[in-house]
Amino acid sequence: MSLVIGVTGGIGSGKTAVTDYFATLGIAIVDADQAARVVVEPGQPALEKIAHRYKGILQEEDGSLNRRKLRDIIFASDSERVWLEQLLHPLIREQIMTELKASVSPYSILVSPLMIETDQHLLADRVLVVDVPVELQIARTISRDNMTEEQTRSILARQATREERREKADDIVDNSQSLEQLYPQLDKLHQHYLKLAKQR
User: Fold this and answer.
1) Is 16 assigned to a binding site?
2) Is position 124 annotated in a ligand binding site?
3) Is 26 known to sit in a ligand binding site?
4) pTM of the prediction?
5) Residue 139 assigned to a binding site
6) Which controlled-vocabulary keywords does the entry list (predicted)?
């Protein structure tokens, strides 16, 4: 398996801007959020278990998961959140591993909002943190996701703090300004990662 760079950052930090740029450089991107969607697609055993536990959780038109309804349930109950995590985390990990093994780029990126909080950081050789001030995270999330400040702060409270993420980071990029300021940082890291990949 090629060198794996774990990309993480709190909600609204701009992880997508970072991974989109790496993708333009020909690097394979494995997205933990995407893997989490795959394991609950219609026909998957996990979706059947969720539907059995929560009546009316499936969309009527196509039998897919009503994510908003599920999010409301797990925000309201820690025990339900734990049940869901115990069901999904091993399946998500398996999906991530399958995708990483299939990668043919010099190194691969695993992007996950909860890399530090879960054991997903163990799948990465290095951790790159996308860093922005908390108030900027909140402002970006409210305007992007149409959420209230209270909902945004509730999500932030469940994520690692900015300090905890910075402590666990091997590399940090500052994404508090423009893309023009972000990309040169990523170009530099790309060259560094290519060198590391060759040394393996």
Assistant:
1) yes
2) no
3) no
4) 0.88
5) no
6) ATP-binding, Coenzyme A biosynthesis, Cytoplasm, Kinase, Nucleotide-binding, Transferase
